[in-house]
Structures are given as structure tokens and as C-alpha cells.
Amino acid sequence: MQVRTRHTPTFGVARLVLAPGEAVVADPLTIAATSYGLVVEVKGAGAKAVALCTAGAEGGWIDAAPVLPGDLHQVELDGTHGWCLARHSWIASSSTVAMNPGAPPMQAIFGGAEGFMNYAHGQGAMVLACYGALDLVTLEAGEAVTISSDHVVAFADTVQCRLRPSAPDGAQSIQTGEGLVFDFAGPGAVLTQARGPRRLTTWLRANGVSPSFMTP
User: Fold this and answer.
1) What pTM does this model have?
2) 3-class SS at 124?
3) How high is the pLDDT of residue 210?
4) What is the pLDDT of residues 131-178, one digit of tens each?
């Protein structure tokens, strides 16, 4: 899979170029267009739905556009280390990249429960999206930082992390990340986004914008 991006960093679109017979897995909600004849098979339903996209004998392409406006970032997995990523940040990945929400790093963070993150490992390319601009935080050994869960896109599994409440008495959810922050310690890389999707939802509700209000 070759990844060609355009309209970044504000309204990023990723064109995934596939060799003959090559397959890629993508978020069905992000597929804006494909080359004629490319086969798209959606598996699962709701938030867990994924699209298996397979090119024909002549190859093909997919245009993947994130739901929220912002930048894109490509991660190349080499099989030696995995990446922990926010579920909403994943756009697409090579069929040789596996997602495992029950992997040890996820067990360590969420204690066996299903949380708002996933774990990617294997070999191949993975495309991530962020809401707003993307920042790369490179932590040296022993260097530490605290980041709101709503602003975390992904981080390498070489990074030490701890998930904790941002306020002892505030509302918290490991399914959405609400009310939680990450403490990170290096070495390793953390990808962050300049805007928070949950904060957008909170702002809309606080200003009288709700699903019922937006329904014609």
C-alpha cells in the first residue's frame, strides 16, 4: 500500500494506492471514493465495523477522508514494536497490520476492560487522523508529560504510560476517555491532536446545539 495525502494539514485526504490483488482494511465511514471495480466488503456493525478493500487485477485506489477536519499521519510498523491508538484516530492499515484490543499493553491500561484505545502490531502502513493539527512529542528516557486523553492520537508501546482521573470527583469513562489523562514517560513518541472531539461535543451541547436541534 502506498499512501498519498492531499489537503493537509486542515482537511486531509489519504489516497491508498493498491497493487493488483492487494487488500487494505479501512474505516467504512471514511471511504469517500474508490477506483472502479475495487471490492469493498464491510464486516461487523456500528463502531466496530471495518471495510476489507481488495484491488482487482489492475490494482486500484481508495480515497479515505476522516469525519473530522484535521491532519493525517502515516505510521510504518516494522514488526518489532506496536502502537497504542485512540479508536477514532484509525483510518486504514495494510492487511498485514493486526488490531488487538486485548493485547498486553491494553490489559495494562484498562485492566481487562474494553477501553477507548486499540493496539496495532505487525508489519505495514497505518494511516491515522487527528482533529485539528498534529503534534509529535518525542520523549527522551526518563522525560515525562501529562496529556488529556481527548488529545492523544497514538503512542509507541516503548512509552511507559498510566491512565488516571483528571479530577478525583469528576465523571470518568474508560469507554470514551472522559475525565481521564495520561502520564507518559520516555523513551518514545506520542502523537497528539490540537483539538478534542469530546470537547467539541460538550461545547455544542452547552451552546444549544444537539442532535434534535440539527434534525430538519
Assistant:
1) 0.91
2) strand
3) 64
4) 999 999 999 999 999 999 999 999 999 999 999 999 888 889 999 999
The pLDDT, as a whole number, for residue 211 is 55
Q: Are 175 and 109 in contact (CB under 8 A)?
A: no
- Is the preceding peptide bond at 9 cis, omega within 30 degrees of 0? yes
Cβ 149 vs Cβ 25: under 8 Å: no
Q: Residue 38: name the closest of 27, 23, 50 by CA.
A: 23
Instruction: Report the half-sphere exposure of 33 (CA within 13 A, side-chain side).
Output: 6
Distance CA 188, CA 182 (A): 14
Amino acid, single-letter form, for residue 2: Q
Number of Cβ within 10 Å of residue 81's Cβ equals: 11
Return the C-alpha cell found at 86. 485512540
- The sign one gets for the Cα dihedral 197, 97, 72, 6 is negative
CA distance 24 to 96: 8
Residues 60 and 11: beta-carbon distance below 8 Å? no
Tell me the three state secondary structure of residue 211: helix
Pair 27, 66: CB distance under 8 Å? no
CA 10 to chain centre: 17
The C-alpha atoms of residue 126 and residue 97 are separated, in whole angstroms, by 8
Alpha-carbon distance of 68 to 130, in angstroms, equals 8
Residue 112 grid cell? 481487562
